[in-house]
Amino acid sequence: MSSTTPEPRATEPKTAGPGSPESDDAQAPITSVFSGMQPSGELHIGNYLGALKTWVQLQERYPCIFCVVDLHALTQPFEPREMPGRIRDMVIGWLSAGLDPDRCTMFVQSTVAEHAELAWVLNTITPMGLLERMTQFKDKSKRQPENINVGLFDYPVLQAADIVVYRADGVPVGEDQVQHVEFTRDVVGKFNYRFGETFPMPRARLSQAPRVMGLDGERKMSKSLGNQIGLNDSPEEVWNKIAPAKTDIRRKRRTDPGVPEECNIFSYHRFFSSSEQQAWAAEGCRTAGIGCRECKRLVADNINAVLAPMRERRAAIERRPRLVDETLAAGTAKLRPLARETMELVRERLGLPTAERYQPSACRSRSTDPTASSPPSPSGGTGR
């Protein structure tokens, strides 16, 4: 590792949005992928469509790191006794959805301390104005007005550290997270400009289903809002949730025509049904040729067809109780050296001592080195 810090460029670069034509790295190939998910409850089809489906595809093409971001979860109300189970359930859900420990790396954020250390470093170069513009802070503050904490405000800085501590350059996200990747790019640009090229410029990769609405048709799917279809739901549970779900308000009676593009249930057809089935549902809605119940039955059957292999994998995973712990332990063991290497480089860039600089072994070797200079005594003499 070189001890020379590269000179900064003469002018500070203006960071373009991820993947934008203005960005000089828009066409650069992705070399590694990082993404994370809070252990906030049962995984649902919104998580699958918005993230997991893309993750499963990416693990076949790139080195991928997927993180249970438990430190982020502390910004919301939680019960400590429930956290271990939530972490475990999340990883079981990932494995059930098709993530393969032989093709990607999975771990828990808090088991690699460098995430928090790097977040503090990035805090020192992050302008308050950048954080004040983050829309997710505003949204979450409205949802939890009794717990507007500093961590909630500073969430994007830790998220930036999560990505760059492994020097990842591909970040699969839904459309509501694109602003966070843009924020990370701004912070990376500032760090590289001030201290020398250290981190690659990350880029967002939008998932195929960037935003999935809940069964209420009004808000994004979420367990906390009770508008979700869980990945572990039985066929009966799936139907019982879809049957009363909101549809196009124009269809008050079976004979009333509707507008499928404005029906939330029809949006699920786009994710789970074939083009022929979508055409059948759209035509039947517009002409009142089918009722909403028939439309819902088809989409429920198609959702269950996707969930069936996940249920089978989950049953197999639950017969191997040590699999989750082994997967996470292997991920942590693999990633700690990478994160440590990044932080050593960051420390070097900042002029801070490396982790080994003041270790007892290093101090002993210096004390036995006859060429090492003695510290001055308190009186200013050489001391004896």
Describe this structure as you would to a colleague.
The structure is a single chain. With 384 residues, this protein is mainly alpha-helical. The chain folds into 2 domains: 33-211 and 320-345, 3-Layer(aba) Sandwich (Rossmann fold), CATH 3.40.50; 233-318, Tyrosyl-Transfer RNA Synthetase. The protein is 48% helix and 6% strand. The protein has 14 helices and 5 strands. The strands form 2 sheets. Strands 1-2-3 form a 3-stranded parallel β-sheet. The two termini are 37 Å apart. The model is unreliable at 1-24 and 373-384 (pLDDT under 50).
In short:
With 384 residues, the protein is mostly helical. It has helices at residues 45-58, 70-73, 83-97, 114-123, 128-132, 135-143, 150-164, 178-195, 235-242, 264-272, 275-287, 292-318, 323-350, 360-367, and strands at residues 33-37, 64-68, 105-108, 170-173, 203-206.
Average pLDDT reading: 86
Total count of helical runs of at least 4 residues: 14
Query: How large is the radius of gyration?
Result: 25 Å
Give me the secondary-structure category: mainly alpha
Short descriptors:
Tyrosyl-Transfer RNA Synthetase, 5 strands, Rossmann fold, 2 domains, 48% helix, elongated, disordered C terminus, two-stranded parallel ribbon, mainly alpha, 384 residues, three-stranded parallel sheet
